[in-house]
Amino acid sequence: MPFSLRSPFSFLSNDLAIDLGTAYTLVYVKGQGIVVREPSIVAMNMKTGRIEAVGTEAKEMLGRTPGNIQAIKPMKDGVIADFEHTEKMLDYFIKKAHNRKLVVRPRIVICVPSQITQVEKRAVRDSAYRAKASYVAMVEEPMAAAIGAGMPITEPTGNLIVDIGGGTTDVAVISMAGIVYSRTVRVAGNEMDEAIIQFVKKRYNLLIGERTAEEVKIRLGSAYPLEEENSAEIKGRDLVEGIPKTVLVSAEEIREALSETVSVIIDAVKQALEQTPPELAADIVDRGIVLTGGGALLKNLDKRLREETGLPVLIADDPLSSVVLGAGKMLVDFDLLKRVAIE
Questions:
Q1: How far is the C-alpha of 130 from the C-alpha of 173, rounded, in Å?
Q2: Domain coverage including residue 223
Q3: Deepest of 47, 235, 320, 333, by most Cβ within 10 A of its Cβ?
Q4: CA 284 to chain centre
Q5: pLDDT value, residue 4
Q6: Measured distance CA(15)–CA(331) in Å, rounded
Q7: Considering its fold, how many domains does the chain have in total?
Q8: Residues 23, 189: contact at Cβ < 8 Å?
Q9: Are 290 and 308 within one domain?
Q10: Structural contact between residues 225 and 253, judged by C-beta atoms closer than 8 angstroms
Q11: Other beta carbons within 10 Å of 124
């Protein structure tokens, strides 16, 4: 990536930082903060080829559309699975960030998973350019998350960040503005929703949709026993009778449903600790592990990690926004961007 000595992020405030996530896309505008936080979904009319809705409006349609309207999730496992629709979605969000007025082509810092392939990088960069960007810099998500969470990443000390998004969990050890070790597991929030769908199907012969599964995860999901175990009614379709049915599920059952997914994330953290150089490992013992991303909000995940690793575990102040806030900081700190941007 050609970096000129003069910052390409200098005069104009239409520069953007984008966290292009599997579940949600967040857009940060220089000088304004986060202006877009919407689901990464496009509703497409298959008859006319027209896009009916993007983001929140499209999510409302999930599982409720006639046959000719399809809700498409163009991002899978943190990367572009559907090139054409990602481009249209990006274009929509960029225009929305600028109140639909796009006079100047914006310069963009865009966040990607740490173990992204060259082909996937090219897909992200091309999509941004086709969506009218004039300049694109890419930053690895755990790096952006660590900056957004306020970790001292430029110091020669070890920082361990665990960013649990919708499609991927990124675990990284960062020191001196560089990633010493990183691991991406394609298990995160979406996988948790799918685990709840399968569990309810198996135990209660009840079919529930993605939106219901996500609501159940937020309401009842946990990684470690709760002080007060509550329960909730969930509605779906009885697979035997074929009619709508309501069942009562407990927090304990949902924890059981999520146990395998949570274990994969914890194993990734343990592996990172095993691969960390001893000097940096000593720093992590003092500083602990920082959790970011929507998955960090899973109840008692910090407690479970603390018990499994024996290390202090902290949740970032605003885990859902850490990545885009970190990328946003780079819009004004070009030296930092130059150090952490990837080719």
A1: 33
A2: 189-257
A3: 320
A4: 24
A5: 43
A6: 7
A7: 3
A8: yes
A9: yes
A10: no
A11: 21
